Every structure is written in C-alpha cells, then in structure tokens.
Amino acid sequence: MTDDVDTQVSDRLVGRVLDGRYRVGARVAKGGMATVYQALDMRLDRTVALKVMHDGLGDDAQFTRRFVAEARAAAKLSNPNVVAVFDQGDDDGTLFLAMEYVPGRTLRDIIREEAPLSPARALDLLTPVLSALSAAHDAGIVHRDIKPENVLISDKGTVKVADFGLARAVSASGNTATQGLLMGTVSYLAPELVTDGSADARSDVYSAGILLYEMLTGNKPHSGDTPIQVAYAHVHNDVPPPSLEQPGIPPYVDALVQRATARDRDLRPTDARVFSRQVHRVRSALGEGLPDDPELTGDLTVPIQQIRQDSGYDDGYTRGEPIRHETIVVPVEHGRPTGAPAEPPVKTPTPPRRRSRGPIALIVILVLAVGIGTAAWYYGIHRYTTTPSLVGMEPAAAAAAAEKAGLKTSLDNQDFSEDIRKGEVMRTDPAPGDRIRKNGDIGLTVSKGPERYRVPQLVGLQLDAAQQALSPIKLITGQITEQYDETVPQGRVIAISPKFNTVVKPGTAVNFAVSKGKRPIGVPDLTGKPYRDANKDLKKLGFVVTRSTQYDEKVPEGAVISQTPNNGTLFAKDKVALVVSLGPPLVDVPNVKKKTTAEAQQILTGAGFKVTVQTAPFNLGLNIVAAQNPGPGQKVKPGSTIVITVL
C-alpha cells in the first residue's frame, strides 16, 4: 500500500490539467505503452478514463498522425459493448485518449481468480466481446490487440472492449513500439501478425479464440521462455483442444476453439459476426446439456480436416491424445531410394482367373448405403428442421410461430432498421430457411426502429466541447460561422442548426454560429464640442457617458474640455468620461455698502463688473449705497451686473 501511495505522489501527471480540460486523478492501470488515470472532464463535469501514452511516442510524427486517425475511427463506434472514446489530444507532446470510465475489473482479474471457467460461463463472457468486435468489423476496423486486459467488466456486469485502433497506431511508429506491443500481447497474436504484420477481421477472431481457450483452461495455449518462442509457437503449432487440460469439455467446444484459432486464416470464421453465430450454436447445445453433438462438431471441424487432407496436412491432434509427426526424407536415385540394393528382374506371373464377386459386392454396397442413409437421416433430416421466417413479427408472435414449429426463441440483440418497425424482429440466427436442430433456439434481433438522434443543447458551450458532444450520437460538424455578440463570450456557440431537440438521422451536419465576442467600436474625439452634441453622438455608438464639470478660462461654458478615452476602441456599454467647461472661474463681489454712488461705481467697474443704480423707495437724497445684489463676498462670473440701491 505504501509503495502505491509513493507512486501516486511521485507521478508527474497526477494533479496536472491536460489540454486545459482534464484534471488527472489517481492512476488506475499501467501497461506496456500507456498508463490509465481516472480524470475529471472540467468542461462537462464528468469522470473519464484518461489513457496517456508513454513518453517518446508523441515524438514520432507518423505515430501521432496514425494515433489521431485511429482515435477518430474508434470514436465512431456505437455499441454498448465498446468503451466509448470521447476525445484525443496532444498536450505539449503528451498524447492521450479520453474514454468512458468503467468502474469494475478486467477479464484478466476474472481469469486469475476464477479460471478454469465452465464452457457456458466462458461463452457468456465471450459473446459481448464478439458483439463489440462485430460492430468494429462492420465499420472496417480491426482491433489487433484483443487480450484480457482490454476486456472490462463493470460493477453491474456489463462487458466492454477498449483500445480499438490503438494497436494499429502503435505498430506504425517503428521497431521499438512494435517490439513493445509484441512483448505485451504475444500470447494472443495471430500467426499472420507475427510473420508479415498483416491483419484483418480474422486476426481478431484468432485472438478471441485464444481468449476462450484461456478462460476454459486457465492457461495460455503456447508458452516459452521468451516472447519470440511464444510467437514461433503461434506460427508453427496448432492450439490444442482445451479438453486436453479439462477433460469434461464437450467435443463441439473443442472444435469451436480450434476453428477460431486455425493457423491458416482462410479456415477461420470470416469475422466476429460469423464467429458469434457459431458461439450461439455451441451455447445452445450446452444449454441443452448435450455431452456431444456429432453434427455440430462436424460442422465446425470437417471443413478444416477436409482441407488439411486435401493438402496432405495433419492437424496433429486426435481426441484426447496429441499425434507426434516425423518427416523422413528419402533421396531417390535412378528410380529407387539411394542406398537400396538392386533387385533382379522378376517375371510377372499370369494372374489366375478370379471368381465373380458381383453379388457379394452388391450386397455390401446396399448394406453400406442403408447404413449411411440411416445415419444421415438420424443426424440430418431426423434431428434438424428449417428455420421459419419470423422477420416482421413482434417477439411474442415470433415465439408463438416458432413454438408451432417445435422451436424456441430468445432475444439476442437490438439494432436499428430503416425498414422494420420498432419492436419487430429484423433478423434471426439462424436465418430463415437455414437448418436448425429440432427444439433448437432461434436468436431474435429486434428492431429499434430507424436510427435517429436528438440534437443536444450545444448553445453556450465552447466550440470544441460542442463538437465532441456530436461524436457519440453520430452527428458531424457542418458550417461554422463567426459573428459578434454582446452577451456570449468569444469562442462559445451562439446558435445551432438544426435546433436543439430536433430528431435527425446519423451523419446529419450541425451548423454552428460562434461568438467572436463583443464588437469593437471606434471612439471619436469630441473635445471642444458642445456637451449636448458629444453626449448624443457617444450614446448613439452604444457607450455610457459620464459627465463632470470645471471652470476654464479658454473653453466656453458647456463645451467639452477633455474626454477619456478619446481614441482607440471600446465595446458597447463601456464608459466614456467627459469633462464639461463651466466657463472662467468665479470672482468675489466687493463690498460697496455705505460708499457714495460714484465711489461704488468706480470700485465695481474697476473689478470688471457692470453696475446698475436704483433709488430706494424712500430716497433721502444722501447719495449713499444702502444695499447691493449680489451681496458682498459672493462669487459670480466675471462681468456680472451688480445692482446697488442708493438712499
């Protein structure tokens, strides 16, 4: 426990934020080419699994290009048994994948703790793996790295396959990466990957067959002191029947494993969907408790044996005991083996006349024909019937129709269909008209109706987050237009088309209007203009105007003395401050009370004021100032008129 804590503390990525979005948390697992962390997607506020490639891989430009391409291809896979890929990124050379977080354990844990598993349990775990591979193969994607570590079992029991396309990306990055891949997954590599590096859907089938073998026995079929020895065994040795280690395994399970792991890829099922149908047949036989089913075993093994006989090849195994082969090379000289003694010519005797055996041979042929016909009737016509057509029926009606034919049904899967209505059977396994054992089970795939998705709410998200939200629902990015917006921050989505909650087909393009932020507005210089005009012009542009005043001897009253700012650009609702002139500064009014009229006028005019003289209502003729307005000491504008009242 202490070592793990120390490792977490010393891990340079723990606590770091990658690509400005993913906060790296605790380390979950470490493999040969990547380390997996639990992380928080801070944009969408969800927990993800962050798979970070080891240092150095990001330095290879070819690998980086392949990594991006394969990650995008994997992100298009939509299957409940595939670990969803949300995002891929490069944070200053640190390559990573953001994937669905699946709390639980791996198939490696189950094999380590529970193997050998019963055939039924092993096939039940393999079936969802093949479902994921079928979706990939239908999309033209080959996994290349099927192994127990890449099969996740959630706490709820859901089986999911991870790392689609990653092995292909790594294999393109040079010898070092390829060797690392070989070291980590050599026990599950198909022979063609070892010999020439080529891979197709049948390579995944081989790896899945090895997976099944390991679940059934608890061991890998090939071992060696070095990875090269194990790889050599894949190329030169057949996978043995699992019953050699677990004798209770039925022959048809042995045949299933050996068919999937044939060294010649042409002898394997063509893809995971074909292999899945074979697994379904074997699982049905197990469900019936059959210790043996010669017909089923023959269906799986006869083609392999026949081809090998035609090519002079023996598979090296009989039921329960391996066959040892020896090859003896005998040089031939002059029509005879080298070193063999010469033989004298021998006179060929005249063959004696043979007695006619026609009637005896005829009887033997008839007996054999009856025996073969009886066996064929029992193993063929007697035990099998034809699968009825149930397509277009509801599951209950399909079950009733199958029951009339002495058959059963089970719901295998659901899938989208443009032709079959939701809730009706869209295909069966076996297909209509195919042979099926009496009392057998028909797997039903029920239509989910046309594949449609609702456009999610993307308005307000950053553009890259909005685009990522389209991938899981198979929508694509359409046209992107940028426009100014006074309320939506730069880089965020203003509007989408089709609109939120619109029901659309897969592949529909969603168009984005993205904010460029607020529109910049040029600021005019209105210094010296009347405040009224300046205020009107600035408000028309969208600015908020603030006003202050001060006296100024040079700027006329009511005109703009200064403006802040008076150039550059602002945005709507930004403030522009104006300082407005009150005219020249005020001056004090002199005190002229009790002065004679002449003295008062002289003082006031000398101070720059104008004088108006008025006589008091009760004029006494004294010619003395009794009052003045404005009064003494008041501040008034220069040149103001002072009214004096004279007695």
UniProtKB/TrEMBL annotation:
<feature type="domain" description="PASTA">
    <location>
        <begin position="385"/>
        <end position="448"/>
    </location>
</feature>
<feature type="domain" description="PASTA">
    <location>
        <begin position="517"/>
        <end position="582"/>
    </location>
</feature>
<keyword id="KW-0067">ATP-binding</keyword>
<keyword id="KW-0472">Membrane</keyword>
<keyword id="KW-0723">Serine/threonine-protein kinase</keyword>
<dbReference type="Pfam" id="PF00069">
    <property type="entry name" value="Pkinase"/>
</dbReference>
<dbReference type="Pfam" id="PF03793">
    <property type="entry name" value="PASTA"/>
</dbReference>
<feature type="transmembrane region" description="Helical">
    <location>
        <begin position="360"/>
        <end position="380"/>
    </location>
</feature>
<feature type="domain" description="PASTA">
    <location>
        <begin position="449"/>
        <end position="516"/>
    </location>
</feature>
<keyword id="KW-1133">Transmembrane helix</keyword>
<dbReference type="InterPro" id="IPR008271">
    <property type="entry name" value="Ser/Thr_kinase_AS"/>
</dbReference>
<dbReference type="GO" id="GO:0004674">
    <property type="term" value="F:protein serine/threonine kinase activity"/>
</dbReference>
<dbReference type="InterPro" id="IPR005543">
    <property type="entry name" value="PASTA_dom"/>
</dbReference>
<feature type="domain" description="PASTA">
    <location>
        <begin position="583"/>
        <end position="647"/>
    </location>
</feature>
<dbReference type="InterPro" id="IPR011009">
    <property type="entry name" value="Kinase-like_dom_sf"/>
</dbReference>
<keyword id="KW-0418">Kinase</keyword>
<feature type="domain" description="Protein kinase">
    <location>
        <begin position="22"/>
        <end position="283"/>
    </location>
</feature>
<feature type="compositionally biased region" description="Pro residues">
    <location>
        <begin position="342"/>
        <end position="351"/>
    </location>
</feature>
<keyword id="KW-0808">Transferase</keyword>
<feature type="region of interest" description="Disordered">
    <location>
        <begin position="334"/>
        <end position="355"/>
    </location>
</feature>
<keyword id="KW-0812">Transmembrane</keyword>
<protein>
    <recommendedName>
        <fullName>non-specific serine/threonine protein kinase</fullName>
        <ecNumber>2.7.11.1</ecNumber>
    </recommendedName>
</protein>
<keyword id="KW-0547">Nucleotide-binding</keyword>
<dbReference type="InterPro" id="IPR000719">
    <property type="entry name" value="Prot_kinase_dom"/>
</dbReference>
